[in-house]
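Sat 14:20. Reprocessing the chain from the morning session after the first attempt stalled halfway. Input below, unchanged.
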Amino acid sequence: MARNLDERPSLLLLPFPPAPSSRTLLSAAYWPSLTATLTKLRNPQGAEKLIIAVACPVLHGQYLRSKSVLWSDAQALLAGIYTLVSVVCAELKIGVEVDGGPGSVDTTVILLDHDRNRRFLAESQPAIKTNSTVVVDLATFASAYHPWKSIFHVRSEPGLELFNTYLRLAEGRQTLLQSQLIPVEGGLAMNATRESSPTHPPPTPGYSVVCLGGTFDYLHPGHKLLLTAAALLLQVPDAGSPQPCQFIIGITGDELLKNKKFAEYVQPWDVRARNVILFLSLLLRISERGWKDNPLLEVEEEDGDFRASFRESAITVQCMRIQDAFGPTVTVENMDALVVSGETRSGGRAVNDRRAEKGWRCLEVFEVDVLDAGEITDGASTAENFASKISSTAIRQQRAQNIK
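Finished this time. Tokens:
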């Protein structure tokens, strides 16, 4: 099924982040570009979609099938950018949740493994080249992500360099009008090569089975950060492997949410699960056809759980209905890693205590940074609006007030 032009996402290409980085430096580098792009996309008549592609060297390893992720750096960068997006949207009064309605912008951040020293031969053609992680390089991104509604690029030397390289790699994938190519202002350029950084954490080995839990009600930037950070931990086998890597996501069942605030506005489990899989499809699904002629995503239902496969069945995503605080972590023995947020850190310890009682090996626990506007804004009203962008409860409350 072909997509209507207005349903296609727009793209914002962001050049290399400051290195070493902080949220203050990220704000100085990216705030003008994000503000200009989101302002232009705000549409009172309908919802818009935006993919923010950030060029950064986040992979380690010489060969494609032996790549590993600099996970600590990658998740911190994701947290910083999703924080910026939420703060900018709070100031502009733009909704950020999936299916947010008119005036909202559903934003997804994708990290592209790229550095300024990499050169693409003039005669080379863009191609799909996967590695042992879920991260793709610029050439694969140009080949697999298209067509776009609009492409925003940063008006700076590194921004124009990235944009021109992307256009060359994407040549022939989409006929673009000049009106679809939109330059936006860049912030302060404070880039350094990774080699000049004093220290950076070692790469994280990939895992065959990664687990994450949550309610995922009105999917918002906080959820997207957790899901993306967890996906980055997957050790992806070759396409067609008889043993795909597994991303198991425990999603709280409807019965456990009856006592939530504004419970009558909680989305049904199947809606929340499908939104999770659809979001992950942006990170995991790659095809030379892009999304123009792709069939609708196939989601299999088995015993009430949802399952989808990506990259020629090399990756399996399974959304499981959970009715307690532990979910599949104490019913499925074959797991390797568990991803938690700062708010659920104690839950990770409890899971391993329970697994130890059963005689099972403990899971490697990875904690994702929280979205926090404190480092980039002092305004009380902005901080309050920011909280509403990363809180399902606040989103439900706002919907309840809009109906009254």
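The chain has a mean pLDDT of 87.
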